[in-house]
Design a protein that fits this description.
By secondary structure, this protein is α/β, with parallel strands linked by helices. The chain is about 35% helix and about 15% strand. It contains 13 helices and 14 strands. The strands form two sheets. Strands 1, 2, 3, 6, 7, 8, 9, 10, 11, 12, 13 and 14 form a twelve-stranded mixed beta sheet that branches. It has a two-stranded antiparallel sheet with strand order 4-5. It is globular and about 55 Å long.
Length: about 425
């Protein structure tokens, strides 16, 4: 792979250039002490190597490995995980920018993962794609310090957007044509970023994929109980002095505690409403009214989003062991939860958006390959957008075939997403998207 020096405002970078794509990986956009707010990474005068994948936040195995297969395995781990990667067409100039925020329940994953490589999006859609990584779990969304800063992962994401605004032109991206997009916790991140007043002007379009919008409210008692569980698990050890392993054990104790709180307990970590930079829940309507006229919105979910969560729940597993009647009951339960947590809130958000003078469109992903055990479940659209068939060959959600990804549908899906980045809602026709 050919390499060359690229002059960027943050300092010169050694990047890959194969004559089709320019790739820069693991670029540090911010630094932060443990449980402290991030600060911009200092400019460097020496050439920094941007040809290797950067670190993921310390994390435990994902609970959705049985759906996606491992995502962040093989990546280095570091609390200094505020890195991003850029892929751009060679010779790009003034192209739209798409910024990806990964899923993983705010506990796992990384934008550096090969499964999120955006090469096809970049080459087919003529866009610049940035994949961002940030603090997760206890490190990013539940500060054990009683007087500490909150929403650290969200603050990291805002710092990444500021870096992009300042420096993406060096890669041929246009900083006034930015689309943020994310799936699951990444889609929820997109919603939080829209609500943050300080992000105005940092993006103009947004895509929410399977964001669990139905779980954003009523989290206060659960969060307080999780804090108590963390304190007990640390056993008097100062959070700044605890080992990474001890902090992850405390995170597990918090997750166990959250399970007492019903459906929201399945999504225990998230930005905390009312903690800077996120407004209180009572102000969300006003923030949406402010954002709608200046941000175009594409929002939706998969047809059977909740099937994966029913399958991981012990009650759902018991249903499956009952044979065909139990499987039918499990699927019915999945449909009910999909409507409540994903589909209905997405439709309501789009309606609210348009009523406030904004442009919004909904989508639904109905596709799943033959033999897919969880139908069109959570994450099923990711292989249509990112990576390669080889990257996704270990994803159980795709069924028993080695590479059952519909190549034509994948091109069409990438075309929808990049058309939106180029020209907004008007490029997608008048009807809701069905994929």
């Amino acid at each position: 792979m050919a390499q060359r020096r690229l002059e960027v405002g943050c300092g010169p970078l050694l990047v890959e250039d194969d004559g089709v794509l320019v790739r820069a990986r693991g670029i540090r956009y911010a630094t932060a002490e443990r449980f402290a707010a991030p600060v911009p990474a200092p400019r460097h005068s020496d050439v920094r190597d941007a040809t290797s994948r950067g670190p993921a936040c310390p994390q435990l195995p994902s609970r959705l490995d049985f759906v996606n297969g491992p995502v962040a395995d093989g990546l280095p781990r570091s609390e200094q995980c505020q890195v991003l990667s850029v892929a751009a067409p060679c010779g790009a100039d003034g192209l739209p920018v798409m910024v990806w925020f990964h899923g993983g329940a705010y506990m796992s994953g990384s934008g550096e993962a090969p499964k999120y490589d955006p090469d096809a999006l970049v080459t087919e859609g003529r866009v610049v794609v940035v994949t961002a990584s940030y603090r997760l779990g206890i490190f990013g969304y539940l500060n054990p310090r009683a007087d500490g800063e909150e929403n650290l992962g969200l603050r990291d994401q805002i710092m990444a957007l500021r870096w992009i605004h300042q420096h993406i032109a060096a890669f041929g991206g246009e900083p006034s044509r930015v689309t943020i997009f994310g799936q699951s916790a990444g889609g929820d991140s997109v919603m939080s970023l829209i609500l943050c007043g300080e992000t105005a002007g940092l993006f103009q379009r947004a895509i929410l994929q399977s964001a669990p919008l139905g779980l954003r409210r009523g989290r206060e008692a659960m969060t307080a109980a999780m804090r108590d569980a963390v304190s007990a698990a640390l056993g008097g050890i100062a959070p700044g002095e605890a080992s990474v392993e001890r902090l992850l054990d405390a995170q597990t104790a918090a997750v166990t505690t959250a399970q007492r709180f019903g459906l929201i307990g399945g999504f225990p970590f998230a930005p905390i409403a009312g903690m800077d930079p996120l407004p209180p829940a009572r102000d969300e309507s006003r923030r949406i009214a402010d954002a709608a006229p200046r941000v175009e919105l594409l929002v939706g979910c998969t047809r059977n989003d909740a099937d994966a969560f029913v399958a991981m729940d012990p009650r759902g597993q018991r249903l499956h062991r009952l044979g065909a009647p139990g499987r039918a009951a499990a699927r019915l339960l999945g449909d009910v939860i999909t409507r409540r947590i994903f589909r209905r809130p997405a439709l309501e958000l789009a309606k609210t958006w348009t009523s406030n003078g904004g442009a919004a469109k909904t989508f639904r992903v109905d596709w799943s390959p033959p033999g897919a055990p969880l139908r069109a479940c959570h994450c099923i659209e990711l292989p249509l957008l990112f990576g390669s068939p080889e990257c996704w060959a270990d994803a159980p959600m795709l069924g028993p075939e080695p590479h059952p990804i519909d190549a034509e549908l994948a091109r069409k899906t990438r075309g929808y997403w990049t058309a939106f980045a180029h020209n907004g809602i008007g490029a997608l026709g008048s009807s809701p998207l069905r994929i």
